[in-house]
Amino acid sequence: MIVNTELEQKGNLFPSEIINYRKDVDTLHFSTKNGVALQITVVRDSVIRFRYSTTGKFENDFSYGVTIHASRGYSFLDVTENETYYIITTSKLICKVEKLSLQVSLFDAIDLKLINQDEIGFHWEECYEHGGDIVKMSKTCQKSESFYGLGDKPVDVNLKGKRFENWATDSYAFGKDTDPIYKAIPFYTAIQDNKSYGIFFDNTFKTSFDFAHERRNVTSFWAQGGEMNYYFIYGPQMEDVVKNYTDLTGKPHALPPLWALGFHQCKWSYYPEANVKEVTNTFRDLKIPCDAIYLDIDYMDGFRCFTWDKEYFPDPKRMVKELEDDGFKTVVIIDPGIKIDADYIVFKEGLDKDYFCKRADGPYMKGKVWPGECYFPDYTNPEVREWWSGLFKELIEDIGVKGVWNDMNEPAVMDVPNKSFPDDVRHDYDGNPCSHRKAHNIYGTQMARATYHGLKKYAYPKRPFVITRSAYSGAQRYTSTWMGDNVATWEHLAIANNQAQRMAMSGFSFAGSDIGGFAEQPQGELFTRWIQLGVFHAFCRVHSSGDHGDQEPWVFGEEVTDIVRKFVELRYQLLPYLYTAFWKYINDGTPILKSLVLYDQEDTATHYRSDEFVYGEQILICPIQEPNTKGRRMYVPKGKWYNFWTDELVEGGKEMWVDAELDSMPIFIKEGAVIPKYPVQQYVGEKNFDDITLDLYYKEGKESSKLYDDAHDGYDYKKGRFSLRTFKVTGKKEELIIQQHKRGDFNADYTKFNIVFHNLPFEITSIQIDNVDTPLNEVKLGETQSILIDKEFTELHLFGK
Ligand code: MIG
Prior knowledge:
Elements: E1 18-24, E2 27-32, E3 37-44, E4 47-53, E5 77-81, E6 85-90, E7 93-98, E8 104-108, E9 114-126, E10 133-140, E11 146-149, E12 163-166, E13 183-184, E14 187-192, E15 195-201, E16 207-211, E17 218-223, E18 228-234, H1 238-249, E19 264-265, H2 273-286, E20 292-295, H3 316-325, E21 329-334, E22 338-339, H4 345-352, E23 367-369, E24 372-375, H5 382-390, H6 393-399, E25 403-406, E26 426-427, E27 434-435, H7 436-459, E28 466-468, E29 471-472, E30 480-482, H8 490-504, E31 511-512, E32 514-515, H9 524-534, E33 541-542, H10 558-573, H11 575-588, E34 593-595, H12 596-599, E35 613-615, E36 619-621, E37 631-636, E38 640-643, E39 649-651, E40 654-659, E41 667-670, E42 674-677, E43 691-697, E44 701-709, E45 723-732, E46 735-743, E47 752-758, E48 764-769, E49 772-774, E50 779-780, E51 785-790, E52 795-800
Parallel strand pairs: 13-29, 19-20, 19-33, 20-21, 21-25, 25-28, 28-30, 30-31, 32-33, 43-47
Antiparallel strand pairs: 1-2, 2-3, 3-4, 4-18, 5-6, 6-7, 7-8, 8-9, 9-10, 10-17, 11-14, 12-16, 14-15, 15-18, 16-17, 22-24, 23-24, 26-27, 34-35, 35-36, 36-41, 37-40, 38-39, 38-41, 42-43, 44-45, 45-46, 46-52, 47-51, 48-49, 48-52, 50-51
Bound molecules: ligand MIG.
Ligand MIG binds next to loops.
């Protein structure tokens, strides 16, 4: 007779002493007396992977998160041992593994200071319910240590003192501190004693992170299954940590087409066609630049993906073309739920080919979403992804749609308490069959990946544009993203600011919020302030649920319309600056937005700042996040900065009041910067221009700026058809020198730069261009001093008195 009806929990289990060690090129294998195995792989000099198994055997080494393009290789690797430790030394790191406990500590190889250390280190609990282990890691947290990252968490920038969970969740009208929401990005960075490191816990099960919340001197992370498998990434600069993480999990495969960096207008939903046209026509009438218009779920026939409601949209191809002729790209939504309908071709094909997810015991995974009862493709199966990509042929190649919006891919299911699939649903996981517990967090990314490949193929030779709601680490390779269903409140404006910064420092720069708020209706003032923030996010889209009224820029009255126009125009002027920042991002992983801690970690005053951020490399932004204000206090980081509106030069390293009436906001330009600007256009490519502006902000000293350019679409840039210009500015008391260096063989249509000098401290007396004296009358003097100069100049020299 069985008397014990309670599960007996064995509690935490720990590795015992190391009894075996073997080195295999870049990987060290340790095993303990009680059967725990640890593999330490030196990925790069500053990146070390730790992988633990409690059975002595490892799972198939497969990751959706880590890209095959990740850089590998180290310049130095040495392993020694003493009585207590194995000691692994690279050119950047020293890693000690304690023989008795398997505990790890990591030191800077140059100054030998401790960076990070296991507290208990690796331990685990057996999981009776599902089998396998709950794998855990705990690390000592230093007093002055701070934490950042973790993707879309709607909290202040510094994560210290908080605990989080990663489980992609449809979170309509989430709020501050709601956790989890749509994304699962198990990567954080920490900074302590001016040394920054990161941890990427590459495990797609539900993961948790505790940043000195439970115990003030301990940081821990754990997963409900799978392996303890994490990458330790050392800086010591936080920017390098983020770059290395982005290298590991992947940069976007291609630059976005430039139009995708324009302004986008969306609503749930614009229909019928006449309504869409009314919106796009109003943009043109009111001269508010806009490049993309979105169709939400109502464009479809009964919410069936890849179909059109022919009553609302009788001739989509014609409409898409007419919109395109007017400078609008059409982006349409595609959800994962496929309506159960024997007459619906996509459903029939999926069923015939056995592409839909199934429950553990065999039946299909049936769930209710917008179309009613649906089955769901298993995007973790490569064959299914291939099929899904193919479904975009007509939409993209024939109809001419330019972008696809993947929603509901957490995956979201209606009318069930857990809002998603049950745990038992089976997935292929690229040939590593598993339950939904393991595949849930990666489902959305694999859908976006399949969508991306479809667009890439059928949009060729143009570049694809995809946007997704759910994401796991690495999704940035395929797609842009937005933050889901936020709310039209002032608090949400601050959340949007923090989320965009947090995403950028989590390797995902192509992100933005629903400007104005998705749920509820903003007042004109809130909408205006949100636009001011949104134009400085890489992805810039107004979206709203529409059931609380309209949210186009002109519905709040003339004053708001004018201010919105002014800021959207500014975005369009700064497109070459943003494009250059994007190029840096795809080239070396540099985040497009930099929280102040990432911009200047040495200054500890930045460690708890949440509002201010640096856009690109040289523009400092601080949104107004409260109503009825004529300005705000903000922290200006160290160095000298120009107020964008007044050209007043301020000395940073302190908090200060900055004026900002409703038609303004705090924007500062780093001294010495050369900021490229296009003329205002109503959409990308509307105009051919003869010259572009370079705003040069005088500095006594040196500063260097870059300008990247190419054809703004297509792939020729990958074959060298790009231009990368570096402008080196050297300012002296009565002199200014600008040297230009150019790389790449792309030749833009414009032939000249209009260089505008801000705050020259001297009167210009003579000018040399490429060492040749140039008559002074070629310079426009007066209030704004400027000079029109051939874009291929190599040196411009101003002399003054
Ligand atoms: O259940 O497609 O986050 O942007 O407008 C709501 C309708 C489904 C949620 C998305 C939102 C979109 C909406 N969708």
